[in-house]
Structure formats: C-alpha cells, structure tokens
C-alpha cells in the first residue's frame, strides 16, 4: 500500500506522540469503566454517553433499568450522546412520584415533545397538557360514566365472550394443536374496542382469523414513538421527510387508522351504519366543535380524537389481558383460587359451558387481585415521561432544572422490595388480599403512587372500571371452562415498545374441563 506524504510524515517523523495518543485513549476508557464500580450503572463514555450500556441491555431493558435504579438508590441520571434527546432523570422512588404526579402536578406536564413523538395523536388527550387536557378529560369522563354507555360496553363484552370467545376456544380444543393465545386475545380486545368506540364489530375473533391490520397499525405507532424518543430529533425528522425506514411504517400506519376512522365518521353522518349499541362516537357526532365552521365537514381533530380513543382502549387491554392469562396459566394454585371464588356464581348458572358476565365478576376480590398482581409485574406503560417546567427539588433531595425530562420506571416500581416484600418477583395475587376479620376478605389498598399501572394523580386512567369489568369475565370464562397449558414459557418476553406487549406471543394448548362444581 502506498502512503501519502502526510501519513509518512506522521508515522516516521512523530511516532512517539502518536503512540502515546493511541495508548491514552483506551487507557482513559478503561479508567472510566473501572471508576464506575457499580456494574448495574452503565459507564458514561465520551461522545456517546451511556448509550453503549443501554444498547447492550436493550433485550431486557426494563429489568436492566429496574436493577440500575435499585443500585443507585432509586434515582439516576441517564445521559446519552450530547446531540441526542437522551438526557433523563430516572426514578422509581414513590415519594418522588407522588411529588411529580400529584403534589407539584402543574410543574410536570407531558410537554410539547409529546405532540411530536405521538404525531398521529397530536392535540388529543394523550398528548396535551393544561386547560386543553382538562377540557378533554372532563368530556371523556362524562362519556365513560353515562349509565347507557357503561351498560352498552358490558353488553358488548357479554356477547363477545358468549358468541365468539367460547366457540373459538372450543374449536381450539377440538383441533388439539397449540395456538397463539396472545393473538386470540388481541382479536377480542380489538373487536371490543371498535364496538365501544364506533359501535361496529370488525369480527376479528372469528374462525377465518382475518388479518389484523388495524392492530398492527396501532402497534407501529407505539414502536416508532419509542424509536423517536431514542434518536436525535433531527435524524428521525429527516427520515420522516424522506419517508424511509421506521418513519415510512409510521406514515402507512397513520394513514390506515385515519382512513378507517374517517370512514366510520362519514358513515355515521350519512346514517349508513347501524350501531350495535351506544358508543363513544354517538356522544361526539353532533357536536359543532368537531366540524369545520364553513363546510360542516368533520375536522382533522375529530379524526385524531377517535384514533386516540382506539389507542386508549386497545393498547392497555392488549397488554393487560395476555399477561394476566399467561401469569395465571403459569401458576396453577392461583387458577384454583380463582375458580374457587367463581363456584357460587357458577352454581347459579345453567348454561354449558358457563359464561361469566361483567356483573358476575367485576366485584370479586380474587379476580381483581389476579389482575392487579399481573399489572404490578407487567404494567401496560412501563415508563412514564414528564417534562420539568421550573427548577425544583424532589423529596429525595435531587435538584431538577427547567426543561429536563423525568422518566419513571413503573416496571421498577412494581419490583420494589420495600413496597412488595422479598418475594416481589413472584406472581402471587394473595398479596393483594386482606382479611376483614369476619371471615370475609377485601382487596388491599395500595396508594396509586406506589402502584402505578393506571397512572396516579390528576392524569390517572379514566377506564379502570371498564377495564376490570371487561377483563375479569373473559378470564373467568376461560379458566373455568378450560385448562390452559403454556407450551414454552422461555419464549415469552416483552417487545421493545412504549407499551408492554409480548414480543413473540405465547403458544398454549387447551383442554376442556369437566365436573367443575
Ligand atoms: C388494564 C387496562 C388499562 C390500563 C392498565 C390503563 C392504564 C392507563 C395509564 C397508565 C394511563 C396514563 C397514560 C399516560 O398518560 O401516560 C391511562 C390513561 C387513560 N386511560 Fe387507561 N388503562 C386501561 C384501560 C383503559 C380503558 C378500557 C379506557 C377507556 C374505556 C381507558 C381510558 C383512558 C384515558 C381516556 C386516559 C387518559 C387520561 C388522561 O390523560 O387524563 N383506559 N390509562
């Protein structure tokens, strides 16, 4: 190989300084690495910050973050490359959480970034703060608490379980081959979402197993939002402009969801659809606020609001339900206790197989304990994100500066030994149950700043009751009538996304139960 004169000059005339520099760099890096005595806290390297440690641990990111927080006393500052938006104060300290989400709520909005990260939902409740958020929240709270809306949602759930879920599960028993339970539950969740939001049944839970394009599109929104959060903003914005890579997938997903939503709205306005019951759309369809002042056409905000409703209902349920079924299937003693609680209800029913309804199960202590315990270990939103408006000092003594980003590891909070005990890794619904002293028992109260899967403070979930009323009858009907055997639990792991979904689903085999009572 021929050297240029410059290279020759460097190599032959100044070898010593070059060798020293070449030696100094790895030496510096080794010293930096050694200085970091705690193996759970990633080393901060020049130029790239803690990014290498983050990337190396991406496959078990939530466990890694939880361990890092424990190792650092529940609070740690994570710094990525200087040009990236990766500079976060991260916490799993319940007192800090209470301060951020409740006591000093106004100082910790979601921030302007949210409208960019979740651009398909820009301006809707998930992405906005202050008065606009309050206005939308009041409205949704009103809709979700109307008795006719509640009863319509419960009716949809009852019908879906009896007419679609049970026949489908029996079919799977007869086939005798393993199938992906995550996929099957994803279908019932999407059917119920579209029924509750638009009053129409997409029939995804049917024997021909139609493609789940809408659910795929919803998943893409959340996966790409995570990607956007980890990249320097100029990078993903350039990709968006060029319509390449993840950004192309995002644009396709957004178009699909918008086209579906626009069609549902247009059909309702034209009187072309026949809603299956009362639905969320019926509370908005005649509101002039959602129409263009001049043309009377539905506004873009109307579309985004209803894409957002699909996200708000579908995403958490598509996470909570499969993890609950998985946890129960892996813990036969919990299944026995769950069935035991159902015996008196089942005794009042004559159908075969027995179908449980929301009214039967939503108040039952063990059914709820099983769900909350699963949400503790697998919270739908494993990380919550807030922005700091004005300088502040947290109860832990850490000072935050205006403009900083705070991340809360909800996943880590569900694994705090101080709160949950030494056996915090175990799935044990009994930890949620306390004795009333008269032979009966009740659900233990854990304040929401310690148990955060439904969020805490003024922005907490508006659909908790609906979630319990929907999930408990599905799970009760499944486990009462069938034995569920997980085929390979080692393949079960969370996917890298903003929401805690399963990466590979979970394969099961079903057996029909007999002589239940
Ligand atoms: C097990 C199921 C569910 C879980 C674990 C859950 C969890 C959550 C969480 C963590 C948030 C806060 C999200 C954030 O701002 O970062 C939230 C907000 C919300 N949830 Fe749920 N959710 C569930 C089901 C539902 C259902 C079924 C509905 C509607 C019927 C619903 C409606 C909402 C709404 C409207 C908000 C926005 C609240 C606000 O920003 O003020 N959720 N939920």
TrEMBL record:
Source species, domain of life: Eukaryota
GO biological process, one term: lipid metabolic process
Record-annotated membrane-spanning stretches: 12-31
UniProt: heme binding residues: 461
Pfam families: p450
GO MF entry, a single one: monooxygenase activity
InterPro entries: Cyt_P450, Cyt_P450_CS, Cyt_P450_E_grp-I, Cyt_P450_sf
Database matches in SUPFAM superfamilies: Cytochrome P450
Cofactor(s) the protein needs: heme
Record keyword Cell inner membrane present: no
Alphabetical UniProt keywords: Heme, Iron, Membrane, Metal-binding, Monooxygenase, Oxidoreductase, Transmembrane, Transmembrane helix
Family: Belongs to the cytochrome P450 family.
Protein name (database record): Cytochrome P450
Biological source species: Leersia perrieri
